[in-house]
């Protein structure tokens, strides 16, 4: 792969790290809503595997830790499902766990927006970028 005129190996994103207030609650949330499996569980940390192999490291930070939103750095995870039925299924699972969800469409893609138990924003998209490459950066992502 070329970058800045130099040939180099391509890298891909494989994992994320989320700081959470209550590890058990967050582990159950991601396991139940997104069908993640718990690969490693240690005091203060867990490694979850999402379908497809993406890794989510959950790190306990306690109930008084800050969660600045809108600053520099990772803001949220975007998940994708293969069907409208899958989107409805995730919507129901999120409503059962956290209550409110919102939906919108941008560039032919349907998005479901919600928050995890710590208030971290979650988006679920249909169709996936593999099925419909993105043609716009939706304003909902940065406004």
UniProtKB/TrEMBL annotation:
Cross-referenced Pfam families: Glyoxalase (PF00903)
Ranges for domain VOC: 12-127
Leader sequence residues: none
Superkingdom in the source lineage: Bacteria
InterPro entries per UniProt: Glyas_Bleomycin-R_OHBP_Dase, Glyas_Fos-R_dOase_dom, VOC_core
Name assigned to this protein: VOC family protein
UniProt source species: Nocardioides agariphilus
Species classification: Bacteria, Bacillati, Actinomycetota, Actinomycetes, Propionibacteriales
């Amino acid at each position: 792969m070329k970058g800045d005129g130099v040939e180099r190996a391509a890298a891909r994103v494989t994992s994320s790290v989320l700081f959470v207030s209550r590890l058990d609650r967050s582990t159950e949330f991601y396991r139940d809503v997104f069908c993640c499996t718990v690969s490693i569980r240690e005091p203060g940390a867990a490694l979850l595997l999402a379908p497809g192999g993406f890794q989510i490291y959950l790190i306990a930070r306690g109930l008084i830790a800050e969660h600045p939103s809108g600053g520099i750095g990772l803001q949220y995870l975007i998940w994708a499902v293969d069907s409208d039925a899958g989107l409805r299924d995730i919507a129901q699972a999120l409503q059962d766990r956290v209550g409110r969800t919102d939906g919108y469409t941008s560039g032919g893609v349907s998005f479901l927006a919600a928050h995890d138990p710590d208030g971290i924003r979650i988006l679920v998209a249909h169709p996936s970028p593999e099925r419909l490459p993105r043609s716009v950066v939706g304003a909902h992502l940065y406004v």
